[in-house]
Amino acid sequence: MQRAGSYFVAVIEDQETGRIVASGTLVVEQKFIRMCGRVGHIEDIVVAKGQQGKRFGFTIIKQLRELAHATGCYKSILDCSEENAPFYEKCGLEVKGLQMAVYSPDAASKKTATANI
User: Fold this and answer.
1) Which listed residue, 9, 23, 59, 92, has the most CB atoms within 10 A of its CB?
2) Is residue 115 one of the residues assigned to a domain?
């Protein structure tokens, strides 16, 4: 196997204010199965309030999908709420499977701060 994974962040910056108005992350996971293939995990897609509807989210997803392909990922996946699924379908993703999760008992006390973009 090669390196265990890679982490990429895509951002869109407002050129007038210098503020980041949209961002997303790609985590590339090296799998043991599939002949040590790579999977791209698209995470943390966010567009600042007041900047939505300008196709920034679509652009971030497009860039992350292209990056996943360029780094040799055989697929890209993401988790989202049911209400956001239509947006991701417009970005070319398909609904597949079912997400399962288990949370640490003290997870509620470890809530992370969200960046104010």
Assistant:
1) 23
2) no
Q: Which two tokens stand for residue 97?
A: 């499977």
Residue 24's Cβ-count burial label (10 Å; 0-12, 13-18, 19+) is: buried
The tally of domains found in the chain comes to 1
Contacts of 42 (CB under 8 A, 6+ apart): 24, 25, 26, 61, 64, 65, 68, 76, 77, 78
CATH of the domain at 90: 3.40.630.30
Q: Structural domain of residue 12, as residue ranges?
A: 5-110
* CB contact burial 55-82 (16+ within 10 A = b; e otherwise): ebbbbbbebbbebbeeeebeebebeeee
pLDDT, residue 1, reads: 42
117 in a structural domain: no
Q: What value does the mean pLDDT take over residues 39-61? A: 97
Instruction: For residue 116, tell me if it sits in a domain.
Output: no
Amino acid at 44: D
